[in-house]
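SAMPLE LOG
Freezer: B-3
Tube label: C17
Construct: single chain, 234 aa
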Amino acid sequence: MPAPETHTGLVRRARRTDRLLAEVYPDAGIELDFDNAFELLVVTVLSAQTTDRRVNAVRPTLFAAYPDPASMAAAPREHLEQIVGPLGFFRAKTESLLKLSAALVERYDGQVPGRLDDLVTLPGVGRKTANVVLGNAFDVPGITVDTHFGRLVRRFRWTEETDPVKVEHAIGALFPKSSWTMLSHHLIWHGRRICHAKKPACGACPVARLCPSYGEGPTDPEAAAALVKTQGPA
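STRUCTURE (predicted):
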């Protein structure tokens, strides 16, 4: 029976995994389109329970009509609902955008704050959304614990935590802060393309030899290759 992994061993394995994923996904980054912090905040809120591609499709119309918090806060509800309709849950999403924009105008003079503690006070903004905005619009390191990230760190046995905040802190302790944002991108890209929830493509996985969960999905290279997606969500 192999000896239990030491903390030092875990840190080394985790960082080695990230380095390999960085080589596999040199273009890894956020798959939502945005031009500024406000746009990123809005599209990240809209991306809940839908795909990045659908959000990217409505983005040009949304921001052509309402390019800043003041104009969006004053938007007619019916028109906003019409724009975000293709994303599903359009009434709730419209309500979120109206409240979020109004809060930015009232509390922050229409500017998106660059601190986690401020961002999470905004309507509809949790730590995940806040870290996406910090890491990608402000270059402030943040760990984005979405469903892919949580699944992969548990499969890799980097942590057994399931609570997103506990996962964020546990994984943050294994990596230098400077790597947090790109680590998030690497794992999310890998989760979308190879390490799927129901049937991971184990036989086509570039980090298989570092993964304690190898074998959860097909290990035959041909069967695994058929499961690989070449891009993010449709």
